[in-house]
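User: Can you model how (2E)-2-methylbut-2-enedioic acid sits in this protein?
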Amino acid sequence: MYTPEIRNLIKKVEETRLSRLGKEFRRMTADEKQDVLERFHPDHVKEGFTTLEAGVNKGERAPKELAFLLQAKSRIRDASLNLNEFDYDVDVLIIGGGGAGASAALMAHEQGVKTLVVTKLRFGDSNTVMAQGGIQAATLPSDSPAIHYLDTIGGGHYTNTPELIYNLALDAPKVIKWLAQLGVMFDREHDGTLKPVHGGGTSRRRMHPARDYSGAEIMRVLRDEVRSRGIEVVEFSPAVELILDEDGKAAGAVLYNLETGKYLIARAKTVILAAGGSGRLHYQGFPTTNHNGATADGLVMAYRAGAKLKFVDSVQYHPTGALFPPQILGLLVTEKLRGMGATPLNVQAELFVHHLETRDVEAAAFIRECREKKLGVPVPGGMAGIWLDTPLLDVIHGQGTVEKNFPAMVRQYSRFGINISRDPIIVYPTIHYQNGGMEINADSMTGIENLFAAGENTGGVQGRNRLAGNSLLDILVFGRRAGINAALKSKEVKLKQPTLDHVAAFQRELREQGLDSREIAAPILLPHYTHKPEPANSPEHKIF
Ligand code: MEZ
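Assistant: Here's the modeled complex, given as structure tokens:
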């Protein structure tokens, strides 16, 4: 329920709506973008970062909260484990039960190899199911993978790895076809053709939604497919350490059964890390759109095993996280709203940024409007945000548009007495995506032999800024590639003596750097929400 003060401010938005119809704020120049990013994007807040003192990325910048975990002690430091007595013995071990893990499992299984998925929570609990707006692919006659490539590399400030986005854009139409054949119900025109929408930084309509629950719809189908093909899935058993063989090649993982508290050994000829992102580390105290398991587990395990990370100092803040009501603070308000024409406004109901700038620029402009210009919309508790004029969509496209295209969002807000077809909503940037992660090649292979990776725990596909809809695509393109290539590779592998020597070696390095006195062990597996005082050097989790 909006407060009387907020209701009063809404009047200005309503009074000016028709005069704003068809108007857009001009696009920023390259210099203006650079300026707003440097002054207001959280990636440029020096105090949010530190320098890594151990591991392969030593000397590089990382968010403080992530650096703390990358350099924390191992959970199994004091456990006595017999690596030759295994609980699971498979060809391909997939760590992670989101979209990347599920699509990898389907492809690996199609190669006729023994495939196992292990997942921290329930199968499907992941950022994939939280994705709302859609998946990018050049499917319109006016579009092409080449244009998709150019938009993606432009949005990523030319930092994306070219061979990765070449394959991302090229595989995209094939992935949409595959998903549709499996049963994903994308939004379609009356004649059955696909109905993509715009996203920030796209020059063509390319984002394919399933209403505003695109990720849940995709995960529904992938999960059903994995189950119906009889692929083994072990839930509530996160991997906590990779196992390498005596030659330093990936050879399995140590799992931790969350119900029994016992460690389990999974031996595998090849391993795929698809363990997701790190939004639940709440960098710089920001809220997040991410699911509870997004605690950087994949990065932590891979880093100890010696995998090189790329762009770990680059985090995506989604411009439109819910700011009010506080019960849904930080939850995603999909970019599909802006893609269809909803515009951000300041407290004076003025346009102040083009509604489809790329996310980093849009988020930085929102922060500037609130912090420097003091033109944010005040909410109880002292914060200020930005209006997103959702009712404008019914004016532009006709009555019922919001209801039809955003059923999940309508429901989310109606629980708090807010009708988003009638009233604008108040948003502010929220942590959405980890741009960086393990380096991979176009076969989804990391620098560690027999270790493959896909999805949010990799870096390079998205560069330093991801476009909307390119992460659902990334998990499928590189999840599928990881599945196929890990399966093919597993057919050649002769397993050797498994070891955890790399964990011991990393502990030694931490000790030498004076970093081993910390109490927290990583991966932390679940966010560390607590009111108890934190040990020294630990990240705090104050929201804002
Ligand atoms: O790719 C995304 O992150 C996406 C489309 C999110 C959204 O705003 O819906």
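A couple of observations from the model: The pocket of (2E)-2-methylbut-2-enedioic acid is lined by residues 131-134, 332, 334-336, 432, 468-469, 471 (CB under 6 Å). The CA atoms of residues 127 and 291 lie 6 Å apart.
User: Helpful, thanks.
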